[in-house]
Amino acid sequence: MKTLLDERIPETVGGKEKLFLSELNHPKIKTIRSFGLWMALEFESLEICKKVVDNCIQKGVLTDWFLFAANCLRISPPLVIPENQIKKACKILTDVCSVL
């Protein structure tokens, strides 16, 4: 906790959340719900979500869906994720959506 506060990491979360939200634009993503860096991307169906999850994992982005909302992809990165990794993950995710 001391490291988190000393490094002022909580202060960076809002900007990182906004970056995710600005980068995750794709017609297949119906809605995005977020609370800081906890995010849920809603798709039309479990089948689409499962394909996105599987393809993202193959391309190096670890994610999963929610048991209580199987049509929603989960994003939950560490608070210290750098902006370049956010942009890379979002690009992979939107590229995967484009080929489905």
Set down the secondary structure blueprint.
Layout: H1 2-6, H2 13-23, E1 31-35, E2 38-42, H3 46-58, E3 64-66, E4 69-75, H4 83-99
Helix pairs in contact: 2-4
How does this model look, in words?
Helix 2 (13-23) packs parallel to helix 4 (83-99). The longest helix is centred in the C-terminal third of the chain and has 17 residues, at 83-99. Strand 1 and strand 2 (38-42) form a beta hairpin. It is elongated and about 45 Å long. With 100 residues, the chain is an alpha+beta fold. It has helices at residues 2-6, 13-23, 46-58, 83-99; strands at 31-35, 38-42, 64-66, 69-75. The chain contains 4 helices and 4 strands. It has a 4-stranded antiparallel β-sheet with strand order 1-2-4-3. The model has no long low-confidence stretch (mean pLDDT 95). The relative contact order is 0.20.
